[in-house]
Amino acid sequence: MAQTTPVHPVDEVPPVRQLAAFGLQHVLAMYAGAVAVPLIVGGAMKLSPADLAYLITADLLVCGIATLIQCIGFWRFGVRLPIMQGCTFAAVSPMVLIGTTGGGLPAIYGSVIVAGLAIMLLAPVFGKLLRFFPPLVTGTVILIIGISLLPVAGNWVAGGVGSADFGAPKNIALALFVLVVVLGVQRFAPAFLSRIAVLIGIGVGLAAAVPFGFTDFDGVGDADWVGISTPFHFGAPTFEFSAIVSMLVVALVTMTETTGDLIAVGEMTDRRIEPRSLSDGLRADGLSTVLGGVFNTFPYTAYAQNVGLVGMTRVRSRWVVATAGGILVLLGLLPKLGAVVAAVPAPVLGGAGLVMFGTVAASGLRTLTQVDFKGNNNLTVVAVSVAMGVLPVGVPTIYEKFPDWFQTVMNSGISAGCLTAIVLNLLFNHLPAKAGSAAAEPDGLAGGGTEEGVEKSREEVV
Predict the structure, then answer these.
(1) Which is nearest to 99 in space by CA: 298, 285, 257?
(2) Interior angle at CA 248, CA 242 and CA 250, nearest 5
(3) Cα–Cα distance measured from residue 81 to residue 19, given in angstroms and rounded to the nearest whole number
(4) Are 166 and 159 contacting, i.e. CB atoms less than 8 angstroms apart?
(5) I need a labelling partner for 77 at 20 to 30 A (CA). Which of 29, 119, 164, 346 fits?
(6) Strand partners, 87
(7) What are the φ/ψ torsions at residue 85 (nearest 5 degrees)?
(8) C-alpha dihedral sign at 278, 284, 287, 291
(9) What pairing do the DSSP bridges indicate for beta strands 85-87 and 300-302?
(10) What's the rounded Cα separation, in Å, for the pair 450 and 425?
(11) C-alpha distances out from residue 178 to 206, 268, 353, 357, Å
């Protein structure tokens, strides 16, 4: 009898019932972050409530389209892995500056379109840089991604930044209740239910939150049933040199962050990222960013929140995340549905976020277990890179006296840590050791460079 070729878990198509549940879980995990960027930028520009609502629906629509491009792919666009796409926070400060200094939204969208085109052109170049991401660097970057996300979960636990009752015991109690539900379902429920533990935790948390006054659904009644984003709704884009330069710096930062996220998902799904697939993923980012500039929204990147969800649930199918992209398209076309999802209170998301974001950090530690730390400086590479990555997270104003381009790069803990890891790996493991230098101590804190355990391919390490 002819034997059928086994399907890789990434390409498996679960039953429709599971697709819907798993997809909705991904949407809930990233929704708050997705709508935060248009809220921040629109709020800083003092846009009307109607314009803010328009920005949000346009963002959700393009989020969904970008996710579909990344997961399903066509030609040389899309990494074809379970990757959720959303607006990058690295662009917030430059966009606020562009929008409030006279350029307005047309200048923002002009610079976003140019940045998207630049990402598509630079994608093959970044693909060739993959050899500079051995397990030492990728494990460190994944660890930094997880650590950088934990303050986001912490703010949700406390009630959300700017909330009147930020840090109230009731908020923390609700978040802990959701955390207990998620852990309980994951530990004791049947296999299928354990894989949607986050969705169940959010649902139970929302049910508990309503009678205690944590949220209401008044906004659902005010929202429109149908909302369609039309190209250049706020006017034809303008192309200002200073705005374009700022957004090109953001493009380099987002490409670095996306590279780390793609490698992380590749590790979690056992489908290793190759130079070509990395280029395809970055090219999809560029196309989505161009679409963002055309359809009244912002630059797009892979969302690290959902990387943790993939690792936690061990559901590796890209069709699950493609379903989440379809749900986002519906939310973008049906604002009333978006208002229902937006009613989930921040502490509920925070309880689930603690598990998801911690899972990302733990995945980085798992990758680092493949690295040899004896007789070399690898421990120093990890230590300094994590320190540089956590610095802007713990002290957000540390670089406020520096030029704008420097802040754009270094205020992102992910890009700061990633660049540090790459440079230190080259310094300690690629440059020739100094003549007569002493061997490193067993703890890896001193000594000359060595490539052992660093230059091995991932297959050899595994």
Answers:
(1) 298
(2) 110
(3) 15
(4) yes
(5) 29
(6) 300
(7) -110, 145
(8) negative
(9) antiparallel
(10) 10
(11) 9, 25, 10, 15
| Other beta carbons less than 10 A from residue 251's beta carbon | 28
- Contact between 102 and 45 under an 8 Å Cβ cutoff? The reply is no
* End-to-end CA gap in the chain: 33
Q: 104-113, 292-301, 356-365, 442-451: lowest mean pLDDT where?
A: 442-451
Tokens of 299: 């630059």
Report d(CA 226, CA 53) in Å as an integer.
12
Neighbours of 122 (CB within 10 A): 18
The number of C-alpha atoms within 13 Å of 358 and in the hemisphere containing its C-beta is: 10
Token pair for 263 = 């490698």
Q: What percent of the chain has pLDDT over 70?
A: 88
Least confident range from 104-118, 319-333, 386-400, 426-440: namely 426-440
Cβ atoms 98, 243 nearer than 8 A: yes
Contacts of residues 188-193 at CB distance under 8 Å and 24 or more positions apart, as own/partner, are: 192/18
Contact between residue 298 and residue 88 where contact means Cβ atoms under 8 Å apart: yes
Please give the Cα distance from 29 to 43 (Å, whole number): 23
CA distances (Å), origin 21, targets 83, 203, 304: 17, 12, 20
**Helices of type H across 72-216:** 92-100, 104-128, 135-158, 169-188, 191-195, 197-209
Give the residue, 36 or 118, on which the prediction is more confident. Answer: 118
Q: What are phi and psi of 373, to 5 degrees?
A: -105, 10
Coil, strand, or helix at residue 301?
strand
Per DSSP, what are the bridge partners of residue 86? Answer: 301
Identify residue 352 by its one-letter amino acid code.
A
Please give the Cα distance from 207 to 184 (Å, whole number).
17
Say if CB 136 and CB 382 are below 8 A apart: yes
3-state helix, strand, coil in the chain (%, to 5): 70, 0, 30
Task: Yes or no: say if 300 and 285 are a contact pair by the CB < 8 Å rule.
Answer: yes
For tokens 């205690």, the residue is 212
Q: How far apart are CA 304 and CA 145, in angstroms?
A: 7
Amino acid identity at 175: A
